[in-house]
Specification:
CATH topology: Aminopeptidase
Structural class: alpha/beta
Oligomer: single chain
Shape: globular
Radius of gyration: 22 Å
Number of strands: 13
Helix content: 40-55%
CATH class: Alpha Beta
Distance between the termini: 51 Å
Largest sheet: 7 strands, mixed
Strand content: 15-25%
CATH architecture: 3-Layer(aba) Sandwich
Order of helices and strands: HEHHEEEEEHEHEHHEHHHEHHEEEH
Strand order of the largest sheet: 1-10-7-2-3-4-11
Length: about 325
Amino acid sequence: MKKSGKILKVLFLFVIILFIIGIGVILYINMLFSNMKHEDLKTSELSVNNELYDQVKDKVSKEDFDKVENIVLFGTDSRDTENMDTGRADTIMVASVNQAKKSIKLISIPRDTYVEVPDYGKTKINHSYAYGKESLAIKTINKNFGLNITDYATIDFSGLIHIINSIGGIDVEITEEEKNYINNRSKEAYEISKNEYEKVINTGVVKLTGEQALTHSRNRTVGNDFTRASRQRAVLEALISRFSSLGIQDILSLSDDLLKEVKTNINVNKYIPVLISIVINKTEYTNNIISKQIPATKYSQDKMIKGIYYFATDLNVAKQDFYETLYDK
């Protein structure tokens, strides 16, 4: 009886210690994320599709549906870390983390996609950000593609340069044409960062500086706007892979500085289980990154309307494409 009592006391003490550690971790994560520029949005104004599960329940169980977190990533062209609200959304991407499948999906939405922007009519989807920043942009995405996204993260060009340079660059595969483009056009990015100009010497998989990676991701001269979006996903994928190769101590030491480059409305407590899942299973996540574009070119077309180029698509097909990609079995 005495022995069982001691065991119970030890177990109780162990639970208390775990609880204290857990509280400490939560407080520390909250402290780190408090460095981000936080700007809340009114969920009631985002046209959230509250019936989404009913529309995808043939593809996914309710338990697994609840383990999918979708965030819109905006890359702005403000070139000003102190004022991200001065630019347009040069990049619009949905990042989806699936804890059940241990996967990350990066989905580019072409910025010229012809959609209905609430209160502004039919126009390019990136105009929604120019007209109403993150709130109207998310509302436009939800309205046109039947999604239920409420969270976002926004970073400007200067911030991307700083983040990549802080982790020692990223490994990206480039061609000879892309190398030449980077060398000819990256001086603007170096002017933003005030760092010394560097040239890319090799092709294939090469380590790019933040300035070079930014220039590469903005390149629509080699290829087209869809090739450009593919480059942006490749840069983000390389960024994720580079972070995953760092030790926890390195990540924590960088976090305080890097999170200052981000504006978001994310409730950190909501994402603690996601962060824990990614840390514990980082190899599975980094080996299971899926990259694609929606709407896809196969059911869309280039269209000139009153002399302006648009990427016109069948929005119903695009909606189903999102559903299949985010919630496939």
